[in-house]
Amino acid sequence: MATYTYEHIPDQGAKAGVLAYLATSAVVLLLMMVFGLLMRLEQAQWISIGAIRFYELMTLHGAGMVGIAAIAGASIMWHFLRQYVDLSSRIFVANLVLFLVGVVMILGSVLLGHFHGAWTFLYPLPGKSMGLWSPGAAALFMGGLLVIGVGFLLLHLDIARALVARYGNFSRALGWPQLFGHDDGKAPPPTVVASAMVTVVNVIGLVVGASILAMMLVNLYVPEFDIDPLLAKGMIYFFGHIFINATIYMAVIGVYEILPRYTQRPWKSNKVFLASWTASTLMVMFIFPHHLLMDFAFPKWMLIMGHIIGYLNTVPILVVTGYGALMIVYRSGIRWDMGSKLLFLSLFGWAAGAMPAFIDGTITVNYVMHNTLWVPGHFHTYLLLGMVTMVFGFMYYLGKPSHEHDDHLIDRIAFWLFTSSVLGFTMSFLYSGKESVARRYAAHLPEWVPYDRIASVFAVLVIASALVFIGRFFARIGLARHDYQRAPVARSVAA
Amino acid sequence: MIAALARPQVGFRVLGALYLLLAAPPLRTSLEATMSGHMLVQIPLLAAIGFVACRLLPVARQERLLDAGGGAVPYVVLVVFASTWWMLPRALDDALASPLVEAAKFISLPLLVGLPLALAWRRLGPIGRGFVWTNFISMLAVLGWLYIAAPVRVCNSYLVDQQESAGWLMVKLALLLFAGWLASLFVGGGGNPALSTAEQVAPPPAPSRDCGPERN
Ligand code: HEM
Ligand SMILES: [Cu+2]
């Protein structure tokens, strides 16, 4: 067995680019949360903006949230990966610029062109608006996605270049020599393994996504070029599923890097860790049919594959990461501060969010639950309490004024408020789903409205606590640039 | 054989022979008889001849040509336009109908596609190359789909079933190229195979900013 010792790497300040990524994410996140609240209020019948506005907001909310999740995740990955390989700042910034260009295109398409075909742009909806939006508006939306995709493709190509330059090839970056041969304890660190995985799957997803976008753009103007709708759906969900999943695989790097600094115990890239990342590299690409379980026209083997891999892929990285975190923390006398608390909470949120998906990934359950609010219940849990919470933890870590600094009371209150209100908010989704409330309905039946009202109250509290986190981050953004020790030393180490 | 090819004199002769073979009626007409042969064999081979020929030129000459054109990007743009042109059904028809266009095809593919691509390739870093590859692959797949989905016969010279089989070939080729490109990332050792990973990890690049870790 290989042995692992903790190798201390001093805390580094963030590059300006990383802070620009985080600031962009924070602003867009707040705005999109408010849009989400407006949708909930509309369903609760406390405001009435009308169905068209609702779907415009839903389109922006979906696209915007997925976009900033990717941007925020990329900033965490880039910040830490840069400490092992030589990444290009120019490409990193270029991605943000392309992202902003894409955002402007999408905003124009939705707000001026009134496109509201949802972020999933499912074929043939964008081209068949029945007069509600023009082909130009749909083209602008899909063009915006394409521009954002090009930015991420460049970023991943740069990461691929840097990984190959340092490790020779991706097999080594994923630790295959240690996984399949003798584990000499010299496998690449978790950050490198995770970045390699994300790069492989995202490049594949982006190329498929770009292809279907190009096809749909042609179809928009020359409808005679028919697309098989099932093929289109498959390609869109292949891309969409990979892209949104990759955000959490990028963000979890924050957990791998930051928690060990608190307790000075190593995060081991042992065989189990490597195996789980390699397995997920493959599985994340074959799991997308879980979105298609209701499409009986799909070949049966694909649906069964989605079912089985959906079960399997819930497990490896999540369990390995959760177990790893417990090993880091257990009896370490870790000093809990906002950063470490949020990161730890995020693992719980990720696990809690995966459970409903596991249940819904069962074909028989899916017939009943799919397209109910159960599904938003699942992904809001793992995105809000998992992914976004990792980002908040990273923000607190970067901005912590000194390793001995104590958190303010208001932050500590905000932590508990956030935890409980997100749970309340997502439970309302899940409960509505259990009661068969359909998702993506602007108007709800009277029986459904009470849940919507409860959810709206929780949503306000979520936004209030997020405001505290984000306000604190902006107040400390100047500190975040500097190199100094942030993680407080655990009692077991200090003693 | 391979070693011999590396010597420019031999290389140019082999390329010249291949070029003449492609241009001579027996092979030319049989390749042009099907759309797939025309688009997916003859045209790529002509471009490849230009590419390899350029590689055989002395490096200094290549660099001079590259500078004369203003770097890699203009050449890539040229390649994109010239190659796109020969992907149009119209262009294929014209080449079959008029000897002049046919001659233009035989000249422009090596000179305006293969050669500039080989020149630009030298300067494109790994990112540029990856970008060209990924774009080319997705465009090839989309083009294949266009040929399959086209509601009408796009060429006068080829029938609809030819069109469809060419389209499927393009899609399959795109998948194959993508798989091959990805696989190439997993093997080989362009980097520092000698250095074991753990040794490299130890020293993080020195923080570039002033304040050391001791602040506070
Ligand atoms: C205060 C926080 C949030 C609120 C109030 C909120 C609210 C909503 C609502 C009401 C919907 C529509 C549900 C329906 O189908 O009826 C929705 C959908 C969605 N939300 Fe959120 N959300 C929040 C945070 C997030 C976050 C943090 C993310 C991702 C990082 C996210 C991603 C999405 C996505 C992808 C959809 C699906 C859109 C679609 O169906 O096309 N949301 N959200
Ligand atoms: Cu999915």
From TrEMBL, chain A:
Q: What are the transmembrane regions? A: 18-38, 58-80, 92-112, 132-157, 196-222, 234-259, 271-288, 308-330, 342-359, 379-398, 410-431, 454-475
Question: By what name is this protein known?
Answer: Cytochrome C oxidase subunit I
Pfam family example for this protein?
Answer: COX1
Sorted UniProt keywords: Electron transport, Membrane, Respiratory chain, Transmembrane, Transmembrane helix, Transport
Record's PANTHER family?
Answer: CYTOCHROME C OXIDASE SUBUNIT 1
Outline the extent of the Cytochrome oxidase subunit I profile domain: 1-495
Native organism is Aromatoleum buckelii
| InterPro entries given in the database record | Cyt_c_oxase-like_su1_dom, Cyt_c_oxase-like_su1_sf, Cyt_C_Oxase_1
Tell me the PROSITE patterns matching this sequence.
Answer: COX1
TrEMBL record, chain B:
Q: Indicate yes or no for the key word Membrane.
A: yes
List the transmembrane segments.
39-58, 65-88, 100-119, 131-148, 168-187
Q: Where do the record's region annotations for Disordered lie?
A: 197-216
Protein keywords: Membrane, Transmembrane, Transmembrane helix
Q: Does the keyword NAD apply?
A: no
Q: What is this protein called?
A: Transmembrane protein
| Species of origin | Aromatoleum buckelii
